[in-house]
Amino acid sequence: MHLFNLKIIKKQYLALGMLVFVVLFLFNSKPAFQCQLTPDSSAYLPTIYGITPTYARLAQKADLTRLSQTLMLVKNFHWIVIEDSASKTKLVENLLKESNLKYTHLNVKTDKPKGSSNHGNGSTASGVEQRNMALDWLRGHLRSPEGTPGVVFFMDDDNTYALKIFDEMRKIKRVGVWPVGIVGGMRVEMPLVTDGKVSGYNAVWKPYRPFPIDMAGFAINATLFLDFPEAKFSRKVQSGFQESEILKYVVTQQELEPLAENCTKVYVWHTRTQKPSIISPKKLKKPLVPDNHIEV
Ligand code: UGA
Ligand code: MN
Asked: Is 243 a catalytic residue?
């Protein structure tokens, strides 16, 4: 019955029908077709591993909100957030979950020596244990099948990052450096470049540091942390020497790669959030409506 019907359909109609079918087929399958021809280019981008220590304070959520919303615009970004606390907090946990970022959430409490000061052995530096824990995690991750090549960037939670800095650091072979705005008592602290190489530094705060560069002014090829398993931060060095401490394991000044247009552009600022002053409710004449249940 079917065959018989087919035979009597005029050839023209059959051709037209087939044409419509083919057109519809191509139209329907276009997106999948395109995907196969031009795969998501981010698959070929080096991963940026951002390492951020953070601690509980009134402006923490504001700072982390601002930072996480910058990071949402960065492709192939993996955020390693380490809380300076004995246990993970709901505030940070929820913020990370809601961000949709790829992240790893860790915690370790800083064990600050009693009566420590910045004199002599400046062991008061923030983030030492947290960043070391992140580096340990990263080494394990890089050795695992999920580990992808990329760069490591140490990011304070209150700095300001232009998206351009993330494009710059994906070019890194070993260690990339760039200027940092508003740091070390300067408008801009920066490496000086001669013939495409770092020849010195414009720095006035402890200019005798082996690498007078702020934490925000460099990123390191992640595989170097496998090549140098002993590379880590230390409580034994004086204040301001953490950057030099980590860099000494992995690079020499001659090997530094100047980025951000030969270190002539500022794409990161060492901003610091002012400590908010809150009026004690006890000092108020009129009692306030309780607000302790509200996360700020
Ligand atoms: C400067 C440097 O830019 C930091 O990289 C360096 O860690 C810090 O000094 C230091 O050695 O103390 P600064 O703005 O003075 O930065 O320091 P913070 O922004 O207060 O702290 C740096 C990072 O460590 C932040 O992400 C902060 O959340 C975290 N932090 C700070 C802790 O995890 N625990 C603390 O007790 C304090
Ligand atoms: Mn800071």
From this structure: yes
From the candidates 83, 129, 168, 243, give the one annotated as an active-site residue: 243
Question: Phi/psi at 223 (nearest 5 deg)?
Answer: -65, -20
CATH for 43-269 is 3.90.550.10
Distance from Cα 166 to the centre of ligand 2, integer Å: 19
pTM score = 0.86
- Report how far apart, in Å, the C-alpha atoms of 71 and of each of 20, 52, 99, 104, 203 are: 46, 12, 9, 14, 29
CA distance 133 to 129: 6
Q: What is the mean pLDDT of residues 99-118?
A: 82
pLDDT tens per residue across span 227-281: 999 999 999 999 999 999 999 999 999 999 999 999 999 999 999 999 999 998 7
Separation CA 235–CA 227 (nearest Å) = 23
**Greatest Cα-to-Cα distance within the chain, rounded to the nearest angstrom:** 100
Going by alpha carbons, the residue nearest to atom 5 of ligand 1 is: 215
pLDDT of residue 99: 97
Report how far ligand 1's centroid is from the alpha carbon of 55 (Å): 9
- What are the start-end ranges of the H helices in 106-259? 128-143, 163-169, 224-227, 242-250
Those residues whose C-beta lies under 8 Å from the C-beta of residue 16, and which sit 6 or more positions away, are none
The closest ligand to the CA of 67 turns out to be 1
Domain locations in the chain? Answer: 43-269
